[in-house]
Amino acid sequence: MRKLTYFIACSLDGFIGDPEGDATEMYRFVDEEFTEFLTAHYPETISTPGRRALGLDHLENKRFDTVVQGRGSYDVALKEGITSPYAHLRQYVASRGLTESPDPQVELITDDLIGKIRELKAERGGLDIYLCGGAQLAGALFGEVDELVVKSYPFAYGTGMPMFASASGVREFGLDEVRAFGNGVVVRTYGRKR
Ligand SMILES: NC(=O)c1ccc[n+]([C@@H]2O[C@H](COP(=O)([O-])OP(=O)(O)OC[C@H]3O[C@@H](n4cnc5c(N)ncnc54)[C@H](OP(=O)(O)O)[C@@H]3O)[C@@H](O)[C@H]2O)c1
Predict the structure, then answer these.
(1) Exposure check for the chain: N or C terminus, fewer CB within 10 A?
(2) Which terms under GO biological process does the entry name (predicted)?
(3) Which segments of the chain have a pLDDT < 70?
(4) What's the predicted TM-score (pTM) here?
(5) What is the span of the domain harbouring residue 159?
(6) CATH code for the domain in which residue 83 is found
(7) CA of 14 to the centre of ligand 1 (A)
(8) How many domains does the chain have?
Protein backbone atom coordinates (compact mmCIF):
# COMPACT_ATOMS: atom_id res chain seq x y z
CA MET A 1 0.00 0.00 0.00
CA ARG A 2 1.14 3.51 -0.77
CA LYS A 3 1.25 5.69 2.35
CA LEU A 4 -0.63 8.93 2.88
CA THR A 5 1.97 11.19 4.52
CA TYR A 6 0.98 14.47 6.12
CA PHE A 7 4.17 16.48 5.56
CA ILE A 8 3.55 19.71 7.40
CA ALA A 9 5.26 22.77 8.85
CA CYS A 10 4.23 23.74 12.38
CA SER A 11 5.03 26.24 15.06
CA LEU A 12 6.25 24.91 18.42
CA ASP A 13 2.69 25.15 19.70
CA GLY A 14 1.42 22.97 16.88
CA PHE A 15 -0.17 25.48 14.52
CA ILE A 16 0.24 25.33 10.73
CA GLY A 17 -0.36 29.03 10.33
CA ASP A 18 -1.85 32.04 12.08
CA PRO A 19 -5.61 31.95 12.77
CA GLU A 20 -6.29 32.66 9.06
CA GLY A 21 -3.77 30.00 8.00
CA ASP A 22 -1.06 32.44 6.89
CA ALA A 23 2.23 30.53 7.25
CA THR A 24 4.64 33.16 5.91
CA GLU A 25 6.18 33.53 9.40
CA MET A 26 7.79 30.12 8.82
CA TYR A 27 9.57 30.97 5.59
CA ARG A 28 12.55 32.61 7.33
CA PHE A 29 13.57 29.26 8.82
CA VAL A 30 14.06 27.70 5.41
CA ASP A 31 17.76 28.58 5.37
CA GLU A 32 20.62 27.01 3.41
CA GLU A 33 21.02 23.96 5.67
CA PHE A 34 17.30 23.23 5.73
CA THR A 35 16.94 23.75 1.97
CA GLU A 36 19.76 21.24 1.47
CA PHE A 37 17.86 18.72 3.58
CA LEU A 38 14.62 19.27 1.65
CA THR A 39 16.46 19.05 -1.65
CA ALA A 40 18.16 15.79 -0.65
CA HIS A 41 15.16 14.03 0.87
CA TYR A 42 11.91 15.71 -0.18
CA PRO A 43 12.59 17.72 -3.38
CA GLU A 44 9.03 17.18 -4.62
CA THR A 45 7.58 19.09 -1.63
CA ILE A 46 9.15 22.28 -2.98
CA SER A 47 6.66 24.02 -5.25
CA THR A 48 7.30 24.39 -8.97
CA PRO A 49 8.16 28.12 -8.72
CA GLY A 50 10.42 27.38 -5.71
CA ARG A 51 12.24 24.61 -7.58
CA ARG A 52 12.68 26.88 -10.58
CA ALA A 53 14.12 29.66 -8.40
CA LEU A 54 16.56 27.20 -6.79
CA GLY A 55 17.52 25.60 -10.10
CA LEU A 56 16.04 22.24 -9.00
CA ASP A 57 13.67 21.64 -11.92
CA HIS A 58 15.60 18.57 -12.99
CA LEU A 59 15.40 16.67 -9.67
CA GLU A 60 13.58 13.34 -9.61
CA ASN A 61 10.83 12.72 -7.06
CA LYS A 62 12.12 10.76 -4.07
CA ARG A 63 9.28 10.16 -1.63
CA PHE A 64 6.05 11.23 -3.34
CA ASP A 65 4.53 11.07 -6.80
CA THR A 66 1.12 12.48 -5.87
CA VAL A 67 -0.03 15.53 -3.91
CA VAL A 68 -3.43 16.14 -2.35
CA GLN A 69 -4.44 19.52 -1.03
CA GLY A 70 -7.60 21.31 0.02
CA ARG A 71 -8.98 24.15 -2.01
CA GLY A 72 -7.98 26.60 0.77
CA SER A 73 -4.32 25.65 0.36
CA TYR A 74 -4.54 25.57 -3.44
CA ASP A 75 -6.02 29.09 -3.31
CA VAL A 76 -2.75 30.41 -1.81
CA ALA A 77 -0.99 29.55 -5.10
CA LEU A 78 -3.98 30.47 -7.25
CA LYS A 79 -3.99 34.00 -5.82
CA GLU A 80 -0.42 34.34 -7.15
CA GLY A 81 -1.63 33.21 -10.59
CA ILE A 82 -0.11 29.71 -10.17
CA THR A 83 -2.62 27.10 -11.33
CA SER A 84 -0.26 24.09 -11.22
CA PRO A 85 1.87 24.51 -8.05
CA TYR A 86 3.35 20.98 -8.09
CA ALA A 87 3.74 20.30 -11.81
CA HIS A 88 6.22 17.47 -11.09
CA LEU A 89 3.53 15.51 -9.17
CA ARG A 90 0.08 14.14 -9.93
CA GLN A 91 -2.08 16.83 -8.37
CA TYR A 92 -5.46 16.53 -6.64
CA VAL A 93 -7.43 19.35 -5.06
CA ALA A 94 -10.38 18.56 -2.80
CA SER A 95 -13.30 20.91 -3.29
CA ARG A 96 -17.05 20.59 -3.11
CA GLY A 97 -17.46 24.11 -4.48
CA LEU A 98 -15.28 24.12 -7.61
CA THR A 99 -16.93 22.57 -10.65
CA GLU A 100 -14.08 22.95 -13.11
CA SER A 101 -10.35 22.64 -12.48
CA PRO A 102 -8.35 25.82 -13.20
CA ASP A 103 -5.61 23.68 -14.77
CA PRO A 104 -5.59 20.46 -16.85
CA GLN A 105 -2.80 19.11 -14.59
CA VAL A 106 -4.98 19.44 -11.48
CA GLU A 107 -7.78 16.95 -10.84
CA LEU A 108 -10.61 17.85 -8.50
CA ILE A 109 -11.95 15.53 -5.81
CA THR A 110 -15.51 16.71 -5.33
CA ASP A 111 -17.10 13.79 -3.53
CA ASP A 112 -16.12 10.55 -1.78
CA LEU A 113 -12.80 12.00 -0.64
CA ILE A 114 -11.94 8.98 1.51
CA GLY A 115 -12.83 6.56 -1.27
CA LYS A 116 -10.55 8.42 -3.68
CA ILE A 117 -7.66 8.45 -1.18
CA ARG A 118 -8.08 4.72 -0.55
CA GLU A 119 -8.06 4.14 -4.31
CA LEU A 120 -4.79 6.10 -4.64
CA LYS A 121 -3.24 4.22 -1.71
CA ALA A 122 -4.20 0.87 -3.25
CA GLU A 123 -2.43 1.61 -6.56
CA ARG A 124 0.42 -0.77 -7.21
CA GLY A 125 3.97 0.57 -7.25
CA GLY A 126 4.90 4.21 -7.36
CA LEU A 127 5.84 6.51 -4.51
CA ASP A 128 3.78 7.73 -1.55
CA ILE A 129 1.09 10.40 -1.40
CA TYR A 130 1.91 13.86 -0.09
CA LEU A 131 -0.92 15.31 1.99
CA CYS A 132 -0.05 18.98 1.75
CA GLY A 133 -2.83 20.39 3.95
CA GLY A 134 -4.51 22.43 5.09
CA ALA A 135 -6.26 21.92 8.40
CA GLN A 136 -9.74 21.15 7.06
CA LEU A 137 -8.56 18.60 4.53
CA ALA A 138 -6.21 16.95 7.05
CA GLY A 139 -9.12 16.82 9.51
CA ALA A 140 -11.30 15.12 6.91
CA LEU A 141 -8.49 12.60 6.30
CA PHE A 142 -7.49 12.19 9.97
CA GLY A 143 -8.21 8.46 9.96
CA GLU A 144 -6.37 7.89 6.67
CA VAL A 145 -2.98 9.39 7.60
CA ASP A 146 -0.30 6.68 7.70
CA GLU A 147 2.72 8.85 8.37
CA LEU A 148 3.37 12.28 9.85
CA VAL A 149 6.44 14.33 8.96
CA VAL A 150 6.28 17.36 11.26
CA LYS A 151 8.66 20.21 10.55
CA SER A 152 8.69 22.19 13.82
CA TYR A 153 9.90 25.74 13.55
CA PRO A 154 11.22 27.44 16.71
CA PHE A 155 8.52 30.01 17.39
CA ALA A 156 5.01 30.01 18.87
CA TYR A 157 1.89 31.62 17.39
CA GLY A 158 -0.10 31.54 20.65
CA THR A 159 -3.20 30.88 18.61
CA GLY A 160 -3.55 29.68 15.08
CA MET A 161 -4.73 27.09 12.57
CA PRO A 162 -4.44 23.54 13.95
CA MET A 163 -2.85 20.59 12.17
CA PHE A 164 -6.22 18.86 11.98
CA ALA A 165 -9.48 20.82 12.03
CA SER A 166 -12.75 19.23 13.12
CA ALA A 167 -11.20 15.81 13.69
CA SER A 168 -12.01 13.61 16.64
CA GLY A 169 -10.79 10.35 18.10
CA VAL A 170 -7.26 9.40 19.04
CA ARG A 171 -4.67 8.14 16.55
CA GLU A 172 -1.36 6.82 17.88
CA PHE A 173 1.94 7.23 16.09
CA GLY A 174 5.41 5.80 16.74
CA LEU A 175 8.53 7.93 16.36
CA ASP A 176 10.73 6.74 13.46
CA GLU A 177 13.24 9.56 13.03
CA VAL A 178 14.32 12.93 14.42
CA ARG A 179 16.51 15.45 12.61
CA ALA A 180 17.61 18.72 14.23
CA PHE A 181 19.03 21.72 12.39
CA GLY A 182 21.32 24.54 13.42
CA ASN A 183 18.55 27.14 13.32
CA GLY A 184 16.36 25.20 15.79
CA VAL A 185 14.11 23.48 13.24
CA VAL A 186 13.32 19.86 14.17
CA VAL A 187 11.83 17.33 11.74
CA ARG A 188 10.11 14.36 13.34
CA THR A 189 8.80 11.40 11.37
CA TYR A 190 6.09 9.20 12.87
CA GLY A 191 4.39 6.08 11.54
CA ARG A 192 0.80 5.32 12.40
CA LYS A 193 0.36 2.50 14.91
CA ARG A 194 -2.48 0.19 13.94
N1 LIG B 1 2.17 25.06 7.48
C2 LIG B 1 2.04 24.34 6.39
O3 LIG B 1 2.92 23.48 6.07
C4 LIG B 1 0.82 24.50 5.52
C5 LIG B 1 0.60 23.58 4.49
C6 LIG B 1 -0.55 23.73 3.72
C7 LIG B 1 -1.44 24.75 3.97
N8 LIG B 1 -1.19 25.63 4.98
C9 LIG B 1 -2.14 26.72 5.25
O10 LIG B 1 -3.43 26.17 5.42
C11 LIG B 1 -4.39 27.15 5.01
C12 LIG B 1 -5.57 26.44 4.36
O13 LIG B 1 -6.13 25.52 5.27
P14 LIG B 1 -7.71 25.39 5.42
O15 LIG B 1 -7.98 24.44 6.51
O16 LIG B 1 -8.31 26.75 5.47
O17 LIG B 1 -8.15 24.83 3.99
P18 LIG B 1 -7.82 23.45 3.24
O19 LIG B 1 -7.91 22.31 4.18
O20 LIG B 1 -6.59 23.61 2.42
O21 LIG B 1 -9.04 23.42 2.20
C22 LIG B 1 -10.37 23.39 2.69
C23 LIG B 1 -11.28 23.13 1.52
O24 LIG B 1 -11.09 21.81 1.03
C25 LIG B 1 -12.31 21.31 0.53
N26 LIG B 1 -12.67 20.11 1.29
C27 LIG B 1 -12.50 19.87 2.63
N28 LIG B 1 -13.00 18.67 2.96
C29 LIG B 1 -13.48 18.12 1.81
C30 LIG B 1 -14.13 16.90 1.49
N31 LIG B 1 -14.39 15.99 2.44
N32 LIG B 1 -14.49 16.68 0.20
C33 LIG B 1 -14.25 17.60 -0.76
N34 LIG B 1 -13.66 18.80 -0.51
C35 LIG B 1 -13.28 19.04 0.75
C36 LIG B 1 -13.35 22.40 0.71
O37 LIG B 1 -13.30 23.19 -0.49
P38 LIG B 1 -14.57 24.02 -1.07
O39 LIG B 1 -14.79 25.12 -0.10
O40 LIG B 1 -14.14 24.46 -2.43
O41 LIG B 1 -15.72 23.04 -1.10
C42 LIG B 1 -12.76 23.20 1.87
O43 LIG B 1 -13.20 24.54 1.93
C44 LIG B 1 -3.68 28.08 4.05
O45 LIG B 1 -3.81 29.39 4.53
C46 LIG B 1 -2.23 27.63 4.05
O47 LIG B 1 -1.33 28.71 4.22
C48 LIG B 1 -0.09 25.52 5.77
Answers:
(1) C
(2) riboflavin biosynthetic process
(3) none
(4) 0.98
(5) 4-192
(6) 3.40.430.10
(7) 17
(8) 1
